[in-house]
Amino acid sequence: MTLFSTLLAALGCGLIAGVFFGFSSFVMPALARLGPAQGVRAMQSINVVVLNRWFLGVLLGTALVCCGLALSALGAWAEPGAWVRFAGACLYLAGTISVTSLYHVPRNQALARLPADSPEAERFWPEYVAGWSLWNHVRGASAFVAGALLIFALLGLSGCRGPLRPIAPPGAMTPVEHLSELGIFEGDPAKQVPRPGFVAYDVNASLYADGARKRRFVYVPAGSRIQTSSDRWQLPVGSYLVKTFSFPRDLRDPMLGERLIETRFLVRTEDGFTASTYVWNDAQTDARASRGDLDVPVAWIDERGVRRDQVFHVPSTSQCAACHADRALGFRSRQLDHVAEYADGTHDQIAHFERIGLIDQRPPAHLVLSDPASEAPLAARARSYLDANCSHCHGAGGSAERTDLFWDLEHTTSAELPSCRSTRSIDGRDRVLVPGYPEQSEFLARMRSDNPRVHMPRGPAKLPDPTGIALLSTWVASLPAQRCESD
Ligand code: HEC
Ligand code: HEC
């Protein structure tokens, strides 16, 4: 409906602009050449004939449609392009209709009252032509610009700028080559300021990624909402999940900025999630679609001022499924329930989602992960770390489900821990977890190992996480000591 009325209004504006353009460019100059008596007679005739249903139909019909458009745009202000529609419609009403009724109509009526051969007409004519022409330029130009704005709004409505095009995975028939083509980030893309509609969010316990920082954004198409639940949330078709990895240049000085490495996408389609990644160029001006599986060298300075050189491994897009298995992994009540900083203060993140209409309702009672770097109790931090870094594989539906070794929050209570569970020996340790004895626990040996065949967590991150290993070691040491019987 809006599409049709915008089209109608744009065409009406164009037609009216054309009529007034004719008057400005040749009709008025031609009449001015005739001299007062003939000029006045011709103009009087035009002013009588112009009041016909065709011309008035287009002039006033367009005005009526513009009134409707302006009101509907006000009612849907949040929609992309609403203001363009509003501006176009108002410009026609103010610049064309008001000028016509406040200036031209009274002038024409004054002219109609004068006999063409009278001395008054002779005096009135030059002044009439000059003023009439000037204001005709104004109403013609207004109709023209209004038409242009409405065409612009039309392009948005018909999908040229409105809903995003789904990102074809790299290697597909029509991949979107450059991140900039997607129009997600506004201004300098390296600043990662998303266009309206994209919502920044954060998780309680982030997956360790060789020390990279992450920014996350979610986009849900207008009119749909995320369905919450006590555990995993359901994203509507057309949702975009975006995660950008970066390294600060110098941890001691945030002003030095950061080096963006890759921006990953999961796009929810009818058949599940499409995964893709875009790797940033050195100039940090844009990122290119990549099949991944490449090493990007990064250098940064840590909090002690020591220069760190490492490689960041961008996973192959065929590896995303090993962890994701067609699921969004951070969209869980346990990961999103926390208090965060927003432009207007500190809020509960879920309440924020509710307020901006991102979710259908607050999730029912649920488990919550703790930030492993927070002041939360040791066990909560350690178990949250395991849930966030291991349970996408070692959990229901995960790729390590067949090991029957689960690291989600539900399976790390003292009753469920894999204490003394025997396993393939790694560096002489053959029990997954020995309570009280971190140095004898095989899972910690795997986490410390730089042998990619045994290293855990399996995945693109290659470097052992010293902070995570320290946290888990302290936790295992704090568990009531237990001697495992030999089999
Ligand atoms: C080692 C496991 C692993 C691999 C491999 C992996 N991811 Fe993820 N990903 C996660 C986890 C865990 C989260 C949720 C926690 C977070 O956001 O830090 C996540 C989050 C995301 C998110 C944010 C939305 C969400 O699911 O919560 C996107 C987007 C994403 N991953 C894309 C990708 C893409 C694309 C690939 C492949 C190029 C990929 N991931 C490979 C584990 C993985
Ligand atoms: C990308 C998926 C993935 C992630 C993430 C992952 N694992 Fe594994 N894990 C596996 C697979 C597959 C196996 C079975 C093959 C093997 O033993 O190497 C396994 C095996 C193990 C085993 C031996 C299991 C046994 O049968 O005794 C341990 C212990 C283990 N993982 C610990 C962890 C820990 C701790 C984490 C998190 C810090 C983790 N894993 C994260 C995929 C994963």
Could you describe the 3D structure shown?
The chain contains eleven helices and twelve strands. Helix 1 (2-34) packs antiparallel against helix 2 (36-49) and helix 4 (82-112) runs antiparallel to helix 5. The protein has 487 residues and is α+β, with helices and mostly antiparallel strands. It is elongated. Residues 159-164 and 169-173 have low confidence and may be disordered. It has three domains: 2-157; 179-355, no CATH class; 378-478, no CATH class. It has a six-stranded antiparallel beta sheet, with no helix packed on it. It has a two-stranded antiparallel ribbon with strand order 7-8. A two-stranded antiparallel ribbon has the order 9-10. The chain is 39% helix and 16% strand. Bound molecules: heme C (2 copies). The site of one heme C has 22 residues, from helix 6, helix 9 and helix 10. One heme C is lined by residues 322-323, 389-390, 392-394, 399-400, 403, 405, 407, 423, 432, 442-443, 446-447, 456-459.
Helix-strand blueprint:
Elements: H1 2-34, H2 36-49, H3 53-75, H4 82-112, H5 119-157, E1 198-201, E2 213-219, E3 240-248, E4 258-269, E5 272-280, E6 287-290, E7 294-301, E8 307-314, H6 320-324, H7 333-336, E9 339-342, E10 345-348, H8 349-355, H9 378-390, E11 422-426, E12 429-431, H10 442-448, H11 466-478
Antiparallel strand pairs: 1-2, 2-3, 3-4, 4-5, 5-6, 7-8, 9-10, 11-12
Helix pairs in contact: 1-2, 1-3, 1-5, 2-5, 3-4, 4-5, 9-11
The structure holds heme C (2 copies).
One heme C binds next to α6, α9 and α10.
